[in-house]
Amino acid sequence: MKTMTLALVLCLAVAVSLVGVEARKHPGKETLGYYELRRGEFSMVVTNWGATILSVRLPDKNGRIDDVVLGYKNIGAYVNDTTYFGALVGRVANRIAGGRFTIKDHAYHTYTNDGNNTLHGGHRGFNQVFWSVRERVTGAFPYITFYYRSGDGEEGFPGALDVLVTYKIDGDYSYSVTMYARPVDKPTPVNLAQHTYWNLRGHGRGTVLDHSVQIFASAVTPVGGDLIPTGAVTPVAGTPFDFRAPAAAGARIAEVEGGYDINYVLDGADADGQGVRKVAVVSEATSGRVMELWGDQPGVQFYTGNFLKGEQGKGGAVYEKHGGLCLETQDFPDAVHNPKFPTEIYRKGQVYKHYMLYKFSLAAK
């Protein structure tokens, strides 16, 4: 037993490959780092700035290795960006109407950065802070865990919150994202999301409108003009939001004002969204790449990069409208104002958990 314990301690002390460290310091004296997780020809690079995924690289049907996520060429572009490329967003992902909510008759006002609404945690959400590296492990299944303490009153949210996110390569061409959060003192809303933009043909290689998309959801939470849910839950049958069977992302996008940017109510989810199940499948014919997303949350935001316009990306790429798509598992948007939605209020002693699994493969010939 002592030998096994020592071996585990030594294993946990092994660092993932450090791709590079910039000599830039946060006031909290955090060092900016880039970290690679690799298993064979499948790899991903993450950074502790915003707990952000910078790249995911894997082969296509001809063996060509491509980076299939959108991103910037250097970390400076991630500072104060509004695309949220690859970021871990919170304390509350998506929108809070009016930048205010009430818990136990106490009103809280959050920073409004989307008109009159709060988006992805406010002006300085979790994507705009340094996270510390809690664990770094190599081996057959490498992983890295980032930690951040969000202080009481940060962006207007009540109470301190401890947050952990682990990125792990779980097998050949698969990786997981595991998020935990624990209120330290006061009740607070929590809804984290991973905001990676995907283009399975390779980032910067045109739009994703020809990508085949399947979402295992029979309903959506419709929104008004400001993208705030109305509180209703409506069936997708007979609408352009129906992706229960695989369809091109662009097949009916002209019927959706502005493009897709809506929460899907996932099939098989109970009130708390518990239980890991298949959320979506995306495939792209030219590369032959297929991506499956599994998760344990009640909803998933499907977004087709509607606001991209001349975005200067990595490797000289320029991202235009619909240059990538997002599938962000989550609690329902603006749940603090909709008692019929699954609650996102967590109290001291409760633990928020959010799990995602990405599986990549090649389509059968």
TrEMBL record:
| Active-site residues, Swiss-Prot/TrEMBL | 195 (proton donor), 328 (proton acceptor)
Q: Name the residues that bind beta-D-galactose.
A: 94-95, 195-197, 261
Q: What is its EC number?
A: 5.1.3.3
Signal peptide interval: 1-23
Q: Does the keyword Signal apply?
A: yes
Q: Which InterPro entries match?
A: Aldose_1-epimerase (IPR015443), Aldose_1/G6P_1-epimerase (IPR008183), Gal_mutarotase_sf_dom (IPR011013), Galactose_mutarotase-like (IPR047215), GH-type_carb-bd (IPR014718)
Q: Which domain of life is it from?
A: Eukaryota
Its UniProt entry gives the catalysed reaction(s) as: alpha-D-glucose = beta-D-glucose
Q: Which pathway does the protein contribute to?
A: Carbohydrate metabolism; hexose metabolism
Q: Which UniProt keywords apply?
A: Carbohydrate metabolism, Isomerase, Signal
Q: One Pfam family of this protein, by short name?
A: Aldose_epim
Molecular function terms, GO-annotated: aldose 1-epimerase activity; carbohydrate binding
Q: Which GO terms describe its biological process?
A: galactose catabolic process via UDP-galactose, Leloir pathway; glucose metabolic process
Q: Which PANTHER family match?
A: ALDOSE 1-EPIMERASE, ALDOSE-1-EPIMERASE
Family assignment from sequence similarity: Belongs to the aldose epimerase family.
State the protein's name.
Aldose 1-epimerase
The taxonomic lineage of its organism, from the top, reads:
Eukaryota, Viridiplantae, Streptophyta, Embryophyta, Tracheophyta
Q: Per UniProt, what is the name of the gene that codes for the protein in this document?
A: LOC123440633
